[in-house]
Amino acid sequence: MAAPNRRFANERHPFLKVAAAVVALATFASIWTAFSSAYASDSAANADPESFVAVSAVDSTAQPPVTANETPAAGSATPSAVSSAGSAPPPTVAPSTGGQRGSSIAPVQRRSRGS
Amino acid sequence: MTSWRLGLLSGLTAVAAILLVRASGVSAAANTWHALRAAGFVSYLLFWVSCLSGMAFYLRIAVPRVRASVVFELHRVTGVLAAAFLASHLVGVLVDPWIDFRVIDILAGATASYRPFALFLGAVGAWALAIVVGTTAVSGRFRYATWLNLHRLAFPGYVVALFHGLLAGSDSANPLVLAMYGLTAGAVAGLGVLRLAGRERPVPAAVSLPGR
User: Is the complex ipTM higher than 0.90?
Assistant: First the structure.
């Protein structure tokens, strides 16, 4: 039995190879677009007032720890605190990538929620 | 155009797209993240197609109106393309401004701060794919039996790539993604059972594979 490459040395399929590459690139672009669209719709949902309240309620249950020099109000990093104070200070704890990677929400979106 | 050049071209296209998005500035972090995930998915799917077509070729499973040489060509080109998209996935991980991985995190996986076990599996799968594709590129230097044994690393490589996707991917809770993993793994498992149940193909004594 000859090795496959030797057996098919005279049988080449250039169109198959090009088609496979084109399909792969098209799939890559499609999945990328789908992720971006899902991210955009998530962002739009978060911009909705009702969703905004829901996010605030969730975030308020897990606020970052407050340092000794900060008042609890100043340390709050919820969106409601940002909107009421106008310019909230940055969170005292940097967002952790490890603990937040479990969701399908894009990283920037998670980051913007915490600041 | 050879499979290698085609794979190189496709990989460079994907890498260029990711780098362009990364340099664009506007929502660069989010778009880089989406792109590297997409590259990971495509690499996994190509790896799966390559495994499936390779097993079908090896088991001589007849596909109606498809010649064995077509199945073999599909097996080869999808393997090269899987490696190319894997490379773009890794480049995306490296340049992503959010996750901040080092080269050692990509090579070893376990050193990363984020899900080290899942990334270790990904690193093992990447090494397996690299060895399989690399040894095929220089297959003329190996005895056929040696090359075939190295080529069989694709099976554990596929399995750890599957678990890397399930454990490290941020979309694993998505029903569509879960269905995709289930269907692809089921197909490979089915052919794997056939492969284990069937007899070994005879290995030629002194035939070397010429690299194309």
Answer: no
